[in-house]
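Why predict the complex rather than its parts? Because the way molecules touch one another can change local conformation, and only a joint prediction can capture that. The input here totals 340 residues.
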Amino acid sequence: MKTFEECFTAWVDGQLSGEALAAFEKELAAHPEAAADRDAARQLGKLLRAHSTAPALSNADFFSLQLQRRIDAETPPRRQPVKPEREAVVSIFSRLAWAGVFFLVLAGASFFLTIPHRPAQPLAPSNYFAQVVESWPSDPGISATTVYNPEDNVTVLWLDGLDYMPSEQLALK
Amino acid sequence: MLRAAPGDAQPTPQGITVSQEKITSIPLSRERPGASPRPEDKVWSGLVYATNAAAPKEPPPELREFASRLKRVFGYNQFELAGSAAKPIDDDGESWLVPSKSFRLGVRARHATSKEARGGYLLDLQLFQDQRPIVATEAKLAPGSPLFIRGPACGKGHLIIVLQVQR
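Output of the joint prediction:
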């Protein structure tokens, strides 16, 4: 249902007719100034149409083109059309594959740059065999410790607590 | 601790009384003794005086094969031989190595027959310093696999006993 203002606008423009016109004119009985307002509005319309201030366009097509370009520039871009589902899946897998390749290269580079490497050497069985099975120091003040140095293939029975010996007692060769 | 046991104690060539029973009662490893030693094998012992010198002398020929390892393990740069001794390995019983007048080694050797022994020996060793027993040891040795015993401090260095089976 139209509001009073809409009906009033239609009545001023002469667009009401029939029952709608009769019903609205009944309503206007409570507004005696309505007829004067309608006459003033119609008079103003005539004056505006008779004395338009818009300049005459010398090249209407060029103006339209410029206007269209400006509208295009200010209009936000349209959203991309939704890709088909299969194309989207292929795109995801392609990105995952590239990401995998990238991280693989990164891991390889990190491995070679951060971890020291020795030149590959064939594993040769050690011929070293010396081994201290057990030791029994004969004095509580003496301790016997077995030390094995795998880098040099050396087994040492390390005795501590022995008496100092002057070097003069040695008969060096 | 080695003690003389009445009745079965045997005097050593140096007059040190050592219990034979005690020596043989030392628990042995899982090697199977019994095979006869090779007649050409002998056990060699050298007493080495290790020091640090500003101008180190060349090691004697007997120590050249050990010099680099001795240097790395003990941190000295000069190694002099204060004495050495070698005895054929036989199964007659105990042998005595006297590399110097201050040190002597009682050695009883048995041929080790396990595969990993590589023709080596199980040795029951007793080390004496000035007739005083220091330590008894059971060790496995094979040619090319010397055993080093770090002895007492001496002068400005240390004495090291090198023990090796030679073939």
